[in-house]
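call fold(seq) -> tokens
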Amino acid sequence: MNRPRRHRTIVFQFLTTSLSFLLILGIVPSANADVITIEVVIKSIDAKGRTVSVIHKNKTLELDVSRKAEVLINSKAGKLDALAVGQQAKIDYETSFEIITKIDATGSPLKNATDPPSLIELSELNSGTYTADPWISLDGLIIYWYFEGNIWTAQRKDKDSLFEKNKKLLPGRHATVAADGLQMILLAPRSDGQKGESLYQTTRSSVDKPFMRPREIRELRNVPKPKNPCLSPDGLTLYFNRAQNQRSEIAYTTRKSLRSPWSPSKSLSVEAESIDGVLTWPFVLNDGLTMLCTVEPIQPSGKSGNLVVLSRKSTTAPFENPHVISGNDLAPIIGRSPRYVISTGELVFARYDGRNAFSLMMVRNLDLEDISLPRE
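ret:
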């Protein structure tokens, strides 16, 4: 017997909604899986309305929580209103009914999560007058930076701890590392002996092993004056600056797999006519819709700062609407290489002190959506 048309339409709309949610999470649904488990960071809780806002792979999701949902907090039974902003959690999501059935949260809440943004110096990392160009892991616990011709790394136990175990990794600069920590792209002198630098890549078998000797990326060898690479977390998209028509521009290249060659680089579509300068140091968040940049030349006495955030409506649309990253209680942020950790609300960058001097800094308690202001 044929089902009524209206019933078939409702079923189709329901399946489409569920499928869209799975695709947002980057999950390919299987034929018999009604419950999926994802790792998230708690962003906000509405215990009365039975909803939670969570961050998953740099995407913010608003989810309903079943009244019968099991809530565990550090392995002990708890209630929804006992969850805290900043906690890591594994959630079981029932795709058929589009609702959370279990929350297993661990860790401590973000301290001072409601405090205004504050600027601190990463003094445990700074050495000399040119400590620069940081890159930080998605969880904010591992940092890489440049000092005296080499790329260094350090780690911390949590967001309130100092970075420690400073370690020199390998010669090079402008390091960018994939989310798993096993692949790095960097700048090093050209292999053909000509003046300038090329993009190199290197890998390691595990995060506690050393990186192998970097090799030049042959298919990108002819990119004119590459700088400031930014590798996507999955390692399949690379953004960088290149020289084009006697001016620096942001470009990108892609590949199908980690072992595939990179495609010819293309100009990244950016509409930023209001910016008085050149956009450099692209840092694209995992959703592909938000990008942080540096406006150069850097003016050490700038009134509004020179680190900006741009957005786009889809991964095929141009980046636009540049805003200066600032806050009412912050002095203008002057520097380069901004890197944002969405799960901890931290911005790491190299502050410019004039006379070609840089030091590593961090802005804490930073929400890009709340404090990004129009550029004047």
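The helical segments are 5-24, 368-371.
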